[in-house]
């Protein structure tokens, strides 16, 4: 009997090679369109990309075994000029999901792809490869987004993303929410009948629900994605191994179920699978290079973090504390990313730095893409959040020292999680109550695709008034961020949805900021 990891690696190898043994061919028929959850691609490299789909059975027992799926990649949307094709195995152990890891494609170009099974043909997806390692591209267009609770709003933001034709989509966490729908549907865009997610089947149903949305499907089909998670893919405000008011063994099973469902529904490479086998952990932190124009350091700020400071067992949320009443807050051993990931990020920033002062080589833009707001929020009350970087001041200080010490040419941080738009200038020292030093980076924290903010603009304005490095702070606007990157300028446009309760809502620009090459800190345009 193959263990789970061996089964996954074997399936990935088969998908890449296009070769199938006898056991992989299914005889069960499909009586409907099995591709109703759409297609996706992800993690582009100069020579390839990951293709994804999941075949959805119509009823119990249908296609209970492994299923053979054909795939095609072409230069044209009509598939007259096919450049690669093959077969992959959709395993029932992975909910009949398919991850095809392509190799041998040309660097820096667009392709079309699709999947076929019997007479069924999937939607056509559009994807692209990254530029060659030495290339300095003239432009990279990134859409970044997070937090898409089903009930709180329709996904009009994703339709707006499609209209702006990004090269890459960065999803920064909370793809699904684990909750059941509220009994009172007042003010909600829509509801669902699923229970609070606790099992693998529950999480699979939740992803299938989200993947059924046509705007989200269109965004997945429009460009390659690079994804990471936050907390709601498992449990609100969990931190590392401890769950919230849950038996350790019970939480380990919950976390494993959430992690497996995440892998099954995302265009991820098999290399993210944990070395220990199964889904006890995934290595989601990774780097994506766009030639010499930009390198994205995509982080995982949940799996390895230390527990929130001064948190009580069974607390319903991470909350906030008065620093003087929580000595644990300043403990230098506490980490937001985990020690190994901190070292990994520092090594990557060192690689991005120019070899010598004035040397034109090296990476032009270093992008730290992570889950939440990095910059401090000094509340007028003196309270300090424990679930963002504010709750891990020593870890933030270490990252600031790494940025200042390695001195990449340009550093930009992207985040989400808080359902608010923040634009900040990042200084070398950002100690609570005593910010100072030179500006070393820029930060853009995007609002949610659909999730409500949970605060008011008056409260956000009060925070901004005592935080001079906060250049913009807006809450309760749903939307996404668009980053246009060239060798000489980074431009971020914050896009917002006019009415989140309308699936066809128009969108508009909230603000535009620019960062000039060699001049850290955003400037309103």
Can you walk through the features of this model?
The chain has 525 residues and is of the alpha+beta class. It is built from 8 helices and 24 strands. A 7-stranded mixed beta sheet has the order 11-10-9-21-22-23-24, with helices on one face. A 7-stranded mixed beta sheet has the order 12-13-15-17-19-18-20, with helices on one face. β3 and β4 form a beta hairpin. α3 runs parallel beside α5 and α6 runs parallel beside α7. The longest helix has 18 residues. The radius of gyration is 22 Å and the shape is globular. The N terminus is likely disordered.
Major β-sheet annotation: 7 strands, mixed
Individual helix count: 8
**CA gyration radius, whole angstroms:** 22 Å
Distance separating the two termini: 61 Å
Biggest sheet strand order reads 11-10-9-21-22-23-24
Low-confidence stretches: 1-28
Judged by helices, strands and strand pairing, the structural class is alpha+beta
The average pLDDT is 90
Q: Got a strand count?
A: 24
Task: Report the oligomer.
Answer: single chain
Q: How helix-rich are the residues, as a percent range? A: 10-25%
Strand content: 25-35%
What overall geometry do the principal axes of the alpha carbons give? globular
Layout: helices, strands, pairs:
Blueprint: H1 4-17, E1 39-45, E2 48-54, E3 67-74, E4 82-90, E5 97-101, E6 110-117, E7 120-121, E8 125-128, E9 140-145, H2 156-163, E10 168-171, H3 200-211, H4 214-222, E11 225-227, H5 248-265, E12 286-290, E13 294-298, E14 320-321, H6 339-352, E15 365-369, E16 384-385, H7 393-406, E17 411-415, E18 420-431, E19 434-445, H8 457-465, E20 470-475, E21 479-485, E22 489-497, E23 507-516, E24 519-524
Parallel strand pairs: 9-10, 10-11, 13-15, 15-17, 17-19
Antiparallel strand pairs: 1-2, 2-5, 3-4, 3-6, 6-7, 6-8, 9-21, 12-13, 14-16, 18-19, 18-20, 21-22, 22-23, 23-24
Helix pairs in contact: 2-4, 3-5, 6-7
């Amino acid at each position: 009997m193959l263990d789970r990891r061996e089964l996954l690696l074997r399936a990935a190898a088969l998908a890449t090679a296009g070769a199938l043994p006898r056991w992989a061919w299914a005889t069960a028929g499909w009586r409907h369109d099995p591709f109703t959850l759409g297609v996706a691609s992800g993690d582009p490299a100069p020579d390839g990309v990951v293709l994804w789909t999941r075949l959805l059975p119509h009823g119990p027992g249908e296609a209970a075994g492994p299923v053979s799926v054909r795939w095609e990649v072409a230069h044209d949307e009509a598939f007259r000029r096919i450049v690669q094709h093959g077969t992959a195995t959709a395993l029932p152990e992975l909910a009949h999901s398919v991850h095809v890891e392509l190799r041998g494609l040309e660097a820096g170009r667009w392709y079309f792809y699709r999947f076929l099974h019997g007479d069924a043909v999937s939607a056509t997806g559009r994807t692209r490869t990254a530029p060659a390692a030495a290339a300095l591209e003239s432009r990279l267009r990134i859409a970044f987004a997070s937090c898409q609770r089903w009930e709180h709003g329709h996904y009009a933001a994703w339709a707006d993303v499609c209209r702006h034709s990004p090269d890459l989509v960065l999803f920064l966490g909370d793809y699904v929410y684990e909750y059941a729908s509220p009994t009172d549907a007042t003010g909600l865009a829509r509801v669902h009948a699923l229970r609070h997610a606790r099992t693998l089947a529950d999480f699979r149903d939740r992803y299938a629900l989200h993947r059924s949305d046509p705007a989200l499907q269109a965004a997945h089909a429009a460009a390659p994605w690079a994804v990471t998670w936050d907390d709601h893919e498992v449990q609100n405000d969990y931190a590392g191994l401890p769950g919230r008011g849950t038996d350790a063994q019970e939480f380990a099973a919950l976390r494993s179920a959430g992690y497996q469902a995440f892998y099954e529904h995302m265009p991820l490479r098999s290399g993210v699978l944990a070395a220990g086998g199964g889904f006890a952990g995934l290595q989601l932190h990774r780097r994506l290079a766009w030639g010499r124009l930009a390198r994205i350091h995509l982080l995982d700020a949940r799996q390895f973090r230390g527990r929130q400071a001064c948190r009580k067992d069974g607390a319903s949320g991470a909350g906030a504390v008065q620093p003087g009443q929580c000595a644990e807050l300043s403990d230098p051993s506490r980490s937001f990313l985990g020690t190994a990931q901190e070292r990994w990020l520092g090594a990557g920033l060192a690689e991005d730095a120019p070899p010598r002062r004035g040397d034109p080589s090296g990476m032009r833009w270093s992008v730290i893409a992570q889950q939440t707001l990095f910059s401090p929020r000094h509340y007028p009350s003196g309270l300090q959040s424990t679930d963002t970087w504010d709750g891990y001041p020593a870890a933030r200080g270490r990252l600031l020292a790494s940025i200042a010490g390695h001195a990449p040419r340009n550093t930009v941080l992207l985040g989400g999680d808080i359902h608010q738009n923040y634009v900040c200038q990042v200084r070398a020292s950002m100690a609570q109550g005593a910010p100072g030093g030179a500006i070393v980076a820029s930060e853009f924290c995007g609002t949610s695709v659909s999730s409500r903010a949970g605060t008011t603009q008056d409260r956000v304005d009060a925070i901004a008034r005592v935080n001079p490095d906060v250049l913009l702070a807006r809450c309760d606007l749903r939307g996404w961020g668009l980053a246009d990157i060239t060798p000489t300028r980074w431009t971020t446009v914050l896009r917002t949805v006019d009415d989140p309760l309308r699936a066809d809502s128009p969108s508009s620009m909230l603000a535009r900021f620019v960062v000039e090459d060699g001049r850290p800190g955003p400037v309103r345009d």
